[in-house]
Structure formats: C-alpha cells, structure tokens
Amino acid sequence: MEENNITQNTEGGSARKQRDWFLPTSILVAAFVIAGAVIYTSMNHGGSAPSGAAIVGATGAGAPSASNVMQLGSRDAILGNSNAPVTLVEYGDYQCPFCGIEFFAKTEPLIVQNYVNTGKVRMVFRDFPFLGPESTASANAAQCANDQGKLWAYHDALYSAKVADDNSGGSENDGFFSTTELLKLGQQVGLNMTTFTSCVQNNSDANVVNQEKTDATNAGINSTPTFYINGTQVLGAQPYAQFQQAIDAALAAAGK
Fold first, then answer.
1. Which of 114, 88, 69 has its CA nearest to residue 229?
2. Which of 30, 37, 85, 170 makes an SS bond possible with 165, Cβ 3.0 to 4.6 Å?
3. What's the CATH architecture for 40-253?
C-alpha cells in the first residue's frame, strides 16, 4: 500500500490513519484464525508454534528431519499391508480436536478406503501426548492395547469416544478419559481385561509413550497432527485432497 503523507494533526487525518491500518490488521487477524483452525500446536502448552501453519511437503531450513521418522520399530503397529509401497506415519494426541474431529472422523476413512484397503499405503500411529494428563493416560492405555496386538482397534475406540465427547461440549482434561472409561473401551475392543487393567492402572507402558514423545521432539515435531508420507511432511489436519496428492506423488516416485 502506498505510504500516505499525512502531516496535519486533525480529526479527519486521525480517522484516515485508522482506516489505513484497519485493513492490514484485519487480514493478519483472519490469517491467524484460519491457521489455528488447521493445526493444534504446543505453543499454548509450553512449546513453540511451527514456522507456518498447514505446510504441505515442508523442506529446507526449519522443517523436521524425516530420516529417523520413517524407520519403523518393533512397537510400530501397522494398519494395512506391511509391504505397501507408501508409509504414512502420524504423530497425534488422543485429546487433540483436530486429530479427532478433522482427521480421524473426516479424512482417515477415505485414506483407509482408497489406499490402505487397496494395499498401497500402510499407516503407523505414534504418540505425541502434550495436552495434559489425560493425553498421557490415554496414550498409555493405547500402548497397553498394543501389547495385545490391538493398538488400531483401541486407537479407533479412543478417538470415536473423544470426538463424541467434544461434539457434546467436552474439552481437554475434563475427566472424560478416566480409568473407568479407558477400561470400558478395552472391553469394547475385546482385550484380555485382567492384563489390560493391570497395565492401565500401573502405567506399565509409560516408558514407551515417553520414548515416542522424546523421539518426536528430537525430530523437530511440536504439533498435532503431524504426518510423514514416505518422508514428505504434511502438517496439520489437511483436507483429503492434500493427502491424496502427497500419496499419489509417493506412489509415482515408487513406480506404482
């Protein structure tokens, strides 16, 4: 915008200055609102926000390294064909509304239908619980389910329950993910309840959860949900079309 040379200190001049500043300020406010609707960062929980919101395929300075992220370990539960040419790794928090309401409920079913069930993509979920004690408790319970080979079934039960709670006015650390609720969900997915109850009540897999969070932090991840698709970062609960583009590019690069 061309600089205005206003020299007179009059009421009209002041009003003109206010109008000059109003438009760019409004644009900035709108930009921050839109960014906040896409990604849930740890900025409000002791961390720092990413350099940009809703960045797809981030590379270069400031982008987390994918070198270690794409290396699967013994605790990584795979959804889909273990030999699929494309791997999608998600870092999430079971209390994160964008992880649940936006990605899990709206986008993930389409990815599973079109890519996982067709053998093209395998999905891996890793814990990044930064929203409080119920995030940590639910992540520990999920790892207890993982001990019995049912991480994904329990993952779905956790998110389904939390999405329903959020849509009913629930919030973070409001008591929803109580021990009673976590055990109820374990029974719902058919776990051995004696083993599962002991694991949940004793926080037996807390070291697993802490290690996943530490590894994510060391990789530069500080927000949920954060995804990697064969090394390409997809930041935030993007629309399905963005994931489709990234997956198709990875398939093409793999010659599939």
1. 88
2. 170
3. 3-Layer(aba) Sandwich (3.40)
pLDDT of residue 203: 96
The residues spanned by each domain of the chain are 40-253
> What is the per-residue pLDDT for 139?
98
Q: What is the DSSP string of the chain?
A: -PPP------HHHHHHHHHHHHHHHHHHHHHHHHHHTT-EEGGGGTS---SSSS-BS--STTSPP-TTTT---TT-PEES-TT-SEEEEEEE-TT-HIIIIIIIIIIHHHHIIIIITTTSEEEEEEE---S-HHHHHHHHHHHHHHHTT-HHHHHHHHHHHHHHHHHTT--TTSS-S-HHHHHHHHHHTT--HHHHHHHHHTTTTHHHHHHHHHHHHHTT--EESEEEETTEEEESS--HHHHHHHHHHHHHHTT-
Q: How far apart are CA 236 and CA 180, in angstroms?
A: 31
Look at residue 57 and tell me whether its pLDDT is greater than 70: no
CB atoms closer than 10 angstroms to residue 217: 15
Residue 66's pLDDT band (boundaries 50, 70, 90)?
low
Who's near 13: CB < 8 A, 6+ residues apart?
6
**pLDDT tens per residue across span 168-210:** 999 999 999 999 999 999 999 999 999 999 999 999 999 999 9
Nearest Cα residue to 219 out of 101, 31, 89: 89
**Average pLDDT value for the chain:** 82
C-alpha span between 106 and 167 (Å, rounded): 14
User: Given this model, what pLDDT does residue 68 score?
Assistant: 82
Other C-beta atoms lying within 10 Å of the C-beta of residue 114: 15
